Amino acid sequence: MENLEFVEKIFSSFGYLGIFFLMALESTATPVASEVVMGLAGFLVAKGIFNFFWASFYGALGSLVGSLFSYLIGFLIYEFLEKFLKDKSFFYKKLQKSKELVKDYGMIGIFIGRFLPGVRHFISFPAGFFKMNLFIFSLATFLGSFIWCSLLVLLAKNLQQFILSF
User: Fold this and answer.
1) CA 165 to chain CA mean position, Å
2) Domain count of the chain?
């Protein structure tokens, strides 16, 4: 319940920028749930306070910014990990496997990852580790996040309307 009150406070103070900010936090692997943020946005869409498109757009834009931050972290620490762990650990082998997955599935992997709990929060790090093309990464992240945010807003909006119909 604390999470919901926090989100409500942010929305009442900042409007769409609150959605942007919270979704940016969510995409940097902080304990902010997109389901709570975009769900509340959907309730506010049903009440006519937010617009469906803009709520989804700002959610996706926030996800992109948070993901770019995570990508940058991955980009900056990979060289260190590569030198420090070089062929000596289980973790290094997992990094190499992740590199292959990003290389093999690229844009599709990032796009689909936006719909998977847990993966959505962390997929940006290996993309940064392995210097995935930033434009492709950003495009896949934004499109996947826009669809994800839109689905959450739509579900919450319809649930609110269903509840109010009784």
Assistant:
1) 32
2) 1
